[in-house]
Design brief:
This protein is of the alpha/beta class. The protein has 12 helices and 12 strands. It binds ligand PBG. The site of ligand PBG has 11 residues, from helix 7. One of its GO terms (cellular component) is cytosol.
């Protein structure tokens, strides 16, 4: 005789092996991109801890290569580079200089680790004296169209240095198209653009601005980065960047914006990246250092949630640690 029984979800949770068999989302090394901060200095072995991001460093070229080498040995496949130039100016000259710090770092890493996928952040804020992501008008407003040529020049200089993927993070309108045209006209039609299409004006970037020494000297980035309250606007940004030729789209930050990531996953078919940003890193680190949470487990839960929501790629400062965790 059959009687009604309730749903017995616990059957598939009974043993570790059964849980392994039915797990829907698994983090692998192919999911991860590790960000690095490289400093323009004569001291190759320069290595300065970033106070607000325990475990992360500003690195000279030699120290960068050594650190990346250890990560590659653990299985790292992709790195994202940010530069700290020796000098900043109003026109962000260091961003597109042929021998700028990111350009040097790209060629160094490609020479040392030819199989490493080197992604470059394309933005001006680390290179401008005022710390904004574009050119300023006399009134101090960030000017959109005059900035596009400089962004395109920056992306081109990265490609010439050997970058495998360029990732514009400035949030100027039209920059994906400007970069695509410039790359194509100069023989780099094979280089993909990973667009920070959906980038919010987030307080979670705080620690990064110490790391990259890129805090705006005045005002904020709200006239170009998105209002955290808006979800439909994210769909318009994504559509615009796809129309301009973006090969991959990014959502940033990650955990507070999983709804956006999930909605984008439903509405488009390009690979999606999520940036688990500096503030998300620092919060977990601080709580773990206080003994309030278990670092390994909260890190793995976080990146699993990001992947489950729809990310194909996760940019995270925990990438090197995760490579250790998933090998255990
Ligand atoms: C450059 C850029 C920023 C981040 C990535 N690219 C800073 C910002 O927009 O203020 C933030 C990354 C992080 O917080 O980890 N525009």
């Amino acid at each position: 005789m059959h009687t009604f029984d309730f749903h017995r979800g616990r059957r598939l949770r009974r043993t570790a092996v059964i849980r392994d068999l039915v797990r829907e989302t698994i983090i692998t090394r192919h999911d991860l991109i590790m960000p690095y901060f490289v400093v323009e200095t004569a001291d190759e072995s320069f290595e300065k801890p970033i106070g607000a991001m325990p475990g992360q460093f500003q690195l000279g070229l030699g120290a960068l290569s050594a650190r990346v080498g250890r990560a590659v040995a653990k299985g790292l496949q992709a790195a994202l580079l940010f530069g700290l130039p020796a000098k900043k100016d109003e026109r962000a000259s260091g961003a597109y200089a042929a021998n700028g710090i990111v350009q040097q770092a790209v060629s160094r890493l490609k020479a040392d680790y030819p199989d490493l996928c080197v992604v470059t952040d394309v933005c001006l804020c680390e290179y401008t004296s005022h710390g904004h992501c574009g050119m300023l008008s006399a009134a101090g407003e960030v000017q959109n169209d005059p900035t596009l040529d400089l962004l395109a020049a920056t992306a081109l200089s990265h490609a010439k240095a050997g970058a495998d993927i360029v990732a514009p993070s400035d949030m100027m309108d039209g920059r994906v198209g400007a970069i695509r045209i410039t790359l194509d006209e100069n023989g780099f039609s094979h280089i993909p653009v990973m667009s920070y299409a959906v980038k919010y004006a987030s307080s979670f970037y705080g620690p990064f601005r110490e790391a990259a020494e890129s805090a705006p000297a005045f005002g904020d980035r709200k006239s170009y980065q998105m209002d955290p309250a808006n979800a439909r606007e994210a769909m318009r940004e994504a559509a615009a960047d796809l129309a301009e030729g973006a090969d991959m789209l990014m959502v940033k930050p990650a955990l507070p914006y999983l709804d956006i990531l999930h909605a984008l996953r439903q509405s488009c078919d390009v690979p999606l990246a999520a940036y688990h940003v500096s503030g998300e890193y620092s919060m977990l680190k601080a709580a773990a250092q206080n003994g309030w949470i278990d670092e390994k487990r909260t890190v793995m839960e976080s990146v699993t949630a990001i992947k489950r929501a729809g990310a194909d790629l996760i940019i995270t400062y925990f990438a090197e640690d995760i490579l250790d965790y998933i090998r255990e």
